[in-house]
Amino acid sequence: MQVRCLPRFEYLTPKTLEEALALLSEHRGKARVIAGGTDLLPQMKSREVVPQYLIGLKNIPALDYIKYSNTDGLRFGALTTLHSVETSPIIQKRFGVLAQAAHSMASTQIRNVATVAGNLCMAAPSADMAPAFIVSGGKLKLVSPEGKRVVAIDEFFTGPGKTVLGEVELLTEVQVPNMPPHSGAVYLKYTLRRAMDIAIVGVAALVTSHNGVCQEVKIALGAVAPMPIRATGAEAVLRRKVINDELIEQAAHVASEEARPISDIRASAEYRKEIVRVLTRRVVEQAWGKTR
Amino acid sequence: MKQLIEFRVNGERYEAAVEPNRTLLEVLWEDLGLTGTKMGCNSGECGACTVLLDGMAVCSCLTLAVEAQGKDILSIEGLSSNGKLHPVQQAFIDHHAVQCGYCTPGMIMSAKALLDKNPDPTEDEVRSALQGNLCRCTGYVKIVEAILAAKEKMKV
């Protein structure tokens, strides 16, 4: 039951990234950063998380931007909301899978304030933005008082709710390279309800076609392992082959074997493996259809 | 430590001294006496607490009151003007879209947010916009009908 009020905390509002990092360092171990707060605040209400300090990031305009260039691809700041990603014309046009994943999440009200960065940093195994970014070759810029580093999203997650983020480190920017020509990417999410539901299984695929051959393929699975994972075995079935239904079915089967889901209140492990097979087939078919 | 915040609700300027751990929903109720916005799940899943924050539908139960600083808030009380109901409110009555009424303010605010951005939504777009508003009584059909009827009235 969650009719509790929030626990007491002190609310700090840095105006710059440097200030935010300094506060995070000063209150190390006792502070959490908050952007949209749509995941953090319910956790605080249920007393799963009880920070003494909340460091609000919303007053740092330097973190709120979406930039695109033909050379560098897409870059957007940590305060970019799911709504912004869902509705950005450039993202819809050139990185449609990201808009598709954002649109599949939660509700209008949540998407209006929740951030992509938050979804990635909270690192739920079912995080919907993760498979989409993984197949898109996303990279994350992490900043600490010691400096900056760029980490491929494949290497960002280390376990349920865990990432490589240091104690005094912030995700400041998400980078996505331009999709290769003749590429298609799709994210499908299996849920019981039409909306407001955590993925039972989430699958994303990006395929690149060259003369009818699958030049490159990336498949990512969400909600079926301790963190979002690449289905490298399934990819190997398709890579540099001529795509046909049989091959896609084979790849889907391999993906279902690569998944290592748990049984929980939403579904059994066996059911999840079966849904991985079905969704992998569908995303690859649909993504391949987009390459033409 | 309380913070002094200043914000606008339904066109009127308010000041309040609030602890950081109070939500906008709590402050609307307890400090401003605006009880039209309802608390349902208190965790952002039911939408009963929906208000417009600078024109965007948000769950006020997940909005820290201190984050309302300098913002424009529209709650259900702010929809009618000079005693006349907003077309969406009237449509809910005309189309029997209200049973217990608890989800209704949130539904109407979500509908207003939708129609402000998209004056001519399809039924699918209406249902999509209401994803975050749960109703235990009506089965949603009359709610969707009311909103589609309101949009026609508002086009004129």
Folded structure, characterized:
Chain A is an alpha+beta fold. Chain A has three domains: 47 residues, Uridine Diphospho-n-acetylenolpyruvylglucosamine Reductase, domain 2 (2-Layer Sandwich), CATH 3.30.43; 114 residues, 2-Layer Sandwich (Uridine Diphospho-n-acetylenolpyruvylglucosamine Reductase, domain 3); 108 residues, CO dehydrogenase flavoprotein, C-terminal domain (Enolase-like, domain 1, 2-Layer Sandwich), CATH 3.30.390.50. In chain A, 34% of the residues lie in helices and 25% in strands. Chain A contains eleven helices and 14 strands. In chain A, the strands form four sheets. A five-stranded antiparallel sheet of chain A has the order 4-5-10-6-7, with no helix packed on it. In chain A, strands 11-12-13-14 form a four-stranded antiparallel sheet, with helices on both faces. A three-stranded parallel sheet of chain A has the order 1-3-2, covered by helices on one side. In chain A, β2, α2 and β3 form a beta-alpha-beta unit. In chain A, α9 runs antiparallel to α10. Chain A is globular, with a radius of gyration of 19 Å. In chain A, 51% of the residues are buried. Chain B has 156 residues and is of the alpha+beta class. Chain B folds into two domains: 74 residues, Ubiquitin-like (UB roll) (Roll); 69 residues, [2Fe-2S]-binding domain (DNA polymerase, domain 1), CATH 1.10.150.120. Chain B has five helices and five strands; from the N terminus they run ββαβββαααα. A five-stranded mixed sheet of chain B has the order 2-1-5-3-4, with helices on one face. The longest helix of chain B has 15 residues. Chain B is globular and about 45 Å long. The termini of chain B are far apart. Chains A and B meet through α2 and α6 of A and β4 and α3 of B.
